[in-house]
Each structure stands twice: as C-alpha cells, then as structure tokens.
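DATA SHEET
Item: assembly model
Revision: 1
Owner: S.N.
Input lines:
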Amino acid sequence: MNFKFLLLAGGTLLSSTAASAGGYQVTLAGQKNNGMGGVGVGLSLDQAAMFYNPGALAMVKDRGVQLGVNATLARNAFVAEGGSQQRQLRNSTVTPFNLYAGFGPAEGKFRAGIAVYTPFGSKLQYANGWEGRTSLTDITLESIYVQPTFSYAITDQLSIGAGLMILAYGSVNLQRDIPLPDSFGHIELDGKAENKVGYNAGIFFKPSDKLSVGISYRSKIDAQVKDGDVTFTNVSPSFASRFEATKFGATLPLPATTSIGIGIMPNENLTIGLDANFVEWSKYRVLRFDFDKQVNGNTFSESKRFYQDALTFRVGGQYKLTSGLTVRAGGSYDMTPVKDGYVTPETPDNDRISGTLGASYSFGKFGVDLSSQFVSIQKRTQTQQDLLNNGTTDRIAGTYKTNIVIPGLGLNYNF
Amino acid sequence: MTTSLFRKCAPVVALMGLGLTACQPDLEDDFTPSAGTADFSRYIAVGNSLTAGYSDGGLYLEGQLSSYPNLLAGQFRAAGGGDFVQPLFQTGQENGSGYLRLTGIVNGSPVTAPVTTNLALRAGATAARPLYTKYTEPVNNLAVPNIRLSDIETAGFGNTQTSPSNALTFNSYFERITPDGNNQTYLARVAASNPTFFTNWLGNNDVLGFATAGGAANSLTPTATFTDKNNKVIDALTANGAKGLVATIPNVTNIPFFTTVGPAFKTTLTAANVPGLVIQTGAALGGPASGNRKQITTADIRDASGNGRQLFTLISSPFLTLLNQRSGRAWRYVYSQSGQPAAGFPLFLAAYGIDTTATFGTSAGNPIPSLFVLDDVEQGQVLTATTAFNAAITAKANEKGLAIFDANTFFTRVAASGIVTNGVTNNANFITGNLFSLDGVHPTPRGYAIVANEMISAINAKYGSNISQVNPNDYRGVKFPQ
C-alpha cells in the first residue's frame, strides 16, 4: 500500500463532527466495531484491531485490507439563557474514515500492518448571528494518525502488539466574531499541526474459545500549531489599528486513552464484547493562543477548559446468522470530560448515550460492512451564574442538546 | 430538499433501512413564552428620558426604537402583548432633538459634535424653548424627558398657549404629545391611559438635575412630596387592577458623567505637585468670605479605584486645563448656561465675588465653579434623597404587589464589576464601556437592552410569566466614526 496515497486520501476524506466519544475524540475506527457499540479491545475481529488493541492483531487469522467511511450527521439545538429562540447549526456532513492493511505469514506467529484513522476531530458551524458568536462561529478540527503496527503471538493464548502512532496530519480552523462597540469584526485562525509521534500498544489474552480479554494504551500527543494564519475581516477602520496579528501558535492535547475489554463467545456464532475506556482529558487545562502582534491589546488569549478524566463503557455483540451474513447491535455510555460551567461551543458536551446497529455480508474473500450509530448528547444547561462562579464568562449561558447519526460503510478484502 | 420534515428528520441509512433518523433536537417547547398572572395586552410605559430612549444628550429615532419599553413590548408580544405605539420621530426628522456624535479620538480624548440636521423642530422653536413636531395620536410610551415626579400635577405642563406664564414649568416633550391648548397634567394623562400592564420609572430627575449641576442649580424634591406624587401615580396606574413593574432610582454618582474626568485630572495634578484646589459649592450668592468656597485636596479627588470623594462633572473637562491661569472662560460658560443676556455677566461675577484676574481654581477669587464639582457634602444630599425616594417607591410597590427592578442595586453592581452579556464584557466606563452614551448619563441601546432584560427577570419572578430576554449584543454601544 502506498503511504503517500493514504495521506492524500486523508486530505479529502478527513474530518468528523464530534462524534461518539467525549470531548473532541472520535471512536469510529472499524466498521464492524461501530455496529457493536464500539467495543473491540477484548476482541480480535479484523484488522481494525490495530486501533482497538494492537496486541490482538496477531490473533486475527485473515490478512487483508479494509476501508471504512462514516458520515456524521450532527444536529444541535441551543437556547440562550433567558431566551426562547432556538439556534441550530448550519448543517454539515463530514466523513471520518479508516483504512487498515494487515500482512503476515499464513501460519506464522506475527502480523504486521498499517492503520490510518481519525481519532480526534470536530466540525461545527453555528447559525449566523447566534448568541455565542463571540465565543465561536465555526470550528474544524482534524487529525489523521498513521500507525505502522507489529503484533506477535507469544503463545496460542497470549499476544502482544504495538504501533508507532504518527500524527501525520492535523489542522485547526477556528472562527469567531469580535465584539466592537458598534459592530462585529471577525477573526479566523487557521493552522496545520506539526508532525508528531506517539505509540499504541496492547496485550491480548484468550484463555479459552469462549473468553478473551485485552488491554491497550494510546499515548498522548500534543498537537502543536506554529505560524498559523490569523485573518481579520469586518473590522471597521476606527479599530483596525488594534488588530495587527498575522500569526498564531497553539497547542491542543490529544489525550492518552487506556482501554480494557472482554470478549465472550458462548457459541460459534455469537460474540459479545464489553469495553471500558479511560481518557486522560485532565491534561486539557487551558486553550491558549499566542499571537505575533496584538489582538485588541493582548498578544495572547487564554480560556479555561479544566477538563476531567472520563470513562466510557461499551457493550455490543454480533451474531452470525448465515455463513455470509452477520448482524450486530450495541450501545455505549460516555461520561463527559467537561465540567459544569466549562461547556464551550467547541464541544457543547455532556454525557452521551449511543445505540448502534450493524451488519456484514461476505462474498468469499470480499466483504461489505454496514453500521449505524445514533448518539444522543444529553441536554445540558449552564447558567450565567455558573460562568461567573468559575470565571468562564468568555462562553455563553444556555441549554444545548445534540443528536448525531453516523451511518458507515466498509469494504474489506482478505487474502 | 428543504422541507422541514427533511430538516428535522433527515432519513439516514438508506443503506441499511434501519429507520434511524438524524432528528433535529427541539428545545423550544421547554422555553415557550407565557404571561403567567400578568396581562400584557395593553402595556403603558410611564417615565422620563430613560423611558423615552434618550441617548447621547438627545432624543432621536434610533434611541426611541431601542428604548426599554419598546424592547419589552417586543418580548411581551410572544405572550399576548398588543401593539406598542411610541411618538416616533418620522423619517426626515429622525434626529429629533439633535444629539452628540463621536467625531474622533484625539490624543486619547473623545471629540464630540452636535448633530444638527434632520431635527424635528417646528416653527417658533428657540434654543431656550425648543418646540418639536407634534405627535398627538394615542401612544403607549408616555415618557417625557426632563419630567420630575414633582411635576406630575403641574397644569399646563404641556401647553404653549399660556407661555410665558408657564415658562418655568413648560416641557417641550410633553407639549409634543399633548393636543394644542390642553392643560392636562401628566398624572391625568397617566390615569386616562388604562393599562393592563405598566412600567413606571419616574423620579430620577428629582435628584439627577441637582447632581449634574454639581449642586449649583435645581433643588432636590422633598421626600414628602416625592412620596405623595409617587403614591398618586401608582394608584392611578393600578386603579383598574393593572399589574406592573416599578424601578428604583440609581445612585447617580456611579455614572460616567461623574467618574470620567476626576481620575485623569487627579493624575495630572499629582504629577504637577498641585496640593489642592479651591472650588465653589452650592448655589448661594456671595464672595470668598460667604462660605460658598471650599478647599479640596488633590488626594480627595475620586480616582478610578474609588479613592477620594470629590467628583468632577463631564462638562468640566475642557476648562480644567485652565487651572492656575488668569482666566474667566469657565465663568463665561457658566453664565451662558443661565440663558440671561450677555450684558449681565459683570453683575453675575460681582454677585459671586469672582475676580477673573486671579488664578483659576487655585485662588478663592476665581474658584472652580460649583457646576463642575459634586462635592462630598452634595453627594451626601443626593444619596440621602435617593435612599428616601427608593424607600417610598419600594413601599408603594410592595403595598400594590408590583414587580420591582432595583435599578440602584443593579447599576451599583455594574459600576463595581461590569456585566458580561453572552460572552461580551461591558462596564460603566465612558465610551469604551458599551453601556453609557456620549452624555455620560443615559444608556446606549446596549445599556437599554440590559435594562429591559433585568426588568423581564423581575416580571417573570413576580408574575410567574416566561418572557424571553433580548440579546444585548444585538444592540450597539457607542457609535464610532466610520
């Protein structure tokens, strides 16, 4: 597989609306997993194990390639505190994707592979003139990880694996309106993240045909933008001298995730998975932008985030109806990392409840996977008093509610 | 496809036929407006310049449109509110009385100029007695700029016909909305308005005129008079069972008119090692030995941190640079404000014992005019009156079970810590604070929007209604030159 081709593909396909994990994390890594609540750490379903648990890859008998694409259809409603007018996003559909290729000797003890996926992302476009316009009007946050992976089966029951996790592409585009005494200006921050490397590692243990367990870890990467572009528009001449910056720098933590999972196979046709993820969101303390020149009298802006570590619980299963057809279902409960009074329009977040369905059909070596997820981000209200109490009045008081539907399509070819 | 069904429930997954839909969440049902126990079908606003939408030292169409009663009426509409008619200045006369606009910032100091085009003046208007284009259709906004609560039973308050016998009590703004030859009092006009819901914010001018004149003109209304008139206006408004809201009177010493000039002046004096000043205080005639002169120290001028007591008015600003010079300019300005013939100037100087060849502001012969300083004693008088008036307003409102917007508490808090509206910081600073217009006294459209929201909170709390607020950021602060 041509590495450069993968990146080019990413450039066009990438990005995802804050989808099925808290904050700006996206867990849409494998089409089979998507259909069963996002479980996978304790399973060895297919090459997507490179994401969920590299340790399980060696237990995936098939060698093959798979490509998956999702469409996230996010619908958000917001009513400002004291208001009655509902604001809705300018709807946009985005398409996070994933690609896995696994290789290895037919009877050998190891498997190697390369994975490309989009673990973090967000795209939200708020209604024109909405109440929170000075906090945010538009955000697009993108990341692509490329992960060369190696997995080795120490025994028939125990395998380990690890991958180098390369932040091959990352970008941020953040726009908001600037309050001037008699009008609104607009600022756009647009930058590319520098390439960085982290790692992903896991252990997989399958003591019997009916049980497997896994643990995996994805390290933190600080996505760092240097020399991003600052563009001002609509700043009236009276104030133009106060908006001089042309470049910005910022760092966004893409936090470490530790996962454990259990797989239960009561019979040949039924597989049940249970996962728990622990994401170290508490590393996200402040969002700081440093400017080369002043923006309304300051050369930096800093906004409190103070995220807290968060857990996600997942359950899902698949049943092989016929030799060709497998059906799946699952769900998850995802605790938000965002504390009361710290909700921002970038991540109008709360605990999330997801339900998923999926199916696969295989035609010999070729297979098609379908999945669909429905994610309900719970209604969340924060008051102006909450904001005052926390010193977070740079954002907006009101009530958010978001629903997301994410259909997905995957193709796989085994050899 | 743009049908609302598609918008709300874009069917997904044709791929799988799962029947899942990307449903647009709907929060609106949680926030449906309602009137509670109030009836907004006929809303009447009673008050002075603040209620008229006065801004930038004048009343003009843009200010009228962003008056808090107009904003309130707009929000009431979703909960059964009826039409709300204001005596708007028409196109072509939209600049109304004229107002101040900002023409630039020179060396950090704002430069303003009066707007003199497209005014609503009619034949017979003079500078001392402007007459505006009449608007005698029935109106819901009965606000009359400059009216004091003590004026509400003055007959002929809006009648030119008896002029000049009523020259001292005549009000051009009330005349504008009163049919010719009509001697109806403001109270009678209010009593005839027959509201189902009202707001009443009268009484500011019963202290404000005294304060903005630095205690040199206009009396404070006696508390007994204030209480009597306030009771009468509330009784008139509630005679038919109307519900409503009353507002208290803010302590005027927190407004930019009094807080802008002093801090910079104090810095200048401190740098120049000027230990103190001589000011004139009060309105009484007499020279240096009469007791109307007062020594204040530089340290006693109130600065931005609130240290010191003496307040300099916004209008003192151009004259303070004359300190220690042998100048009579300040006194010529003060005399010109009296409207008396120029020939009387020497007599005026003699009556106050002013020697314009003495150094300005540093000698008892040529003190800083009383008009420019609200000194600590005068502030005490203002505060005492404000407290007494607010006690009267609050007692009557409680007696009638009305909602109360405690404007005094609110503006005190704003002066101390500002107010954030949907992520935007606003405070009581002149020009840059967004809330106060170029006259340093009246709010900007943003300021009025915030006042409307505070009133809505009080109304909702009192009557169990659910009236939604406006987004203050949709309304401007001070308009800058383009």
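QC remark: Residues 211 and 374 of chain B are 7 Å apart (CA to CA).
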